[in-house]
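Summary for the steering committee. One of the milestones for this cycle was to obtain a three-dimensional model of the protein with nickel (II) ion bound, which we needed before selecting residues for the alanine scan. The sequence and ligand used are listed below.
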Amino acid sequence: MRLELMTSPAVADYLTRSKGIIIPVGATEQHGPDALIGTDHLCAEVIARRCGEANGIIVAPTVAYGMSQFHLGFAGTLSLRPSTLSALMHDLVNSLAATGFTRIYLLNGHGGNVAPLRSAVQEFYAARSLAGVREPSQVHCRILSWWELPKVNALRQRLYGAQEGYHATPSEVAITLAAHPDAIAPFERPAPPAPGKDVILHAGDNYYDAADFRQRFQDGRVMSHSALARREDGEELIRLAIDDLAQDFRAFCAAQ
Ligand code: NI
């Protein structure tokens, strides 16, 4: 169920049965020569929305912009500063908490968002701790990136192995092919060159600035063979993601 397509009384009624909500968070950034600018938010969005429909969970409007400063050497990238994303998410968590939600699930689609999202959640708790609030917060937040969902992670490794890489990954491209089949023209392209000594930079989107990124990764991909993506595999990845997410969300809502 999409929050933006509900009435306020319908949300109040939902809150008598469930206190949980999913917010898809992504980015608007270059994804190499063939994949979509919106890949990161479109992946989180399709998984969250389909899971919400199938399981009667409210899904908030997608946060389509993320912390993408290192992609700004490529046209079409729109980035927030880490502090802006963190402040935005802090305000959203506060809004949800103020209106009765106590299980707030951030489904992430972009590695560069992880640190600002964690910061936002800790800002929420820090405000209580620093004010000396004595009762434990009833509000719990969970941050998970869709590729960490266990069945999804297993399938993407089985399908692509090391060619999954880190950016414009065949798994994310496959999901967008399944979700938006008319948006991507068929393409062929060889794998990007191996990065050699620079590989240590990539863990957790831990890059330097945009000019440095463009020099290291000239076509925008980071070790990812995007052309391995198939629409059918995207459909399977989405199906497994919906399953995994529903299970993880239920466990999160039930935990004290
Ligand atoms: Ni991406």
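Key point for the committee: The chain has one domain: 3-254.
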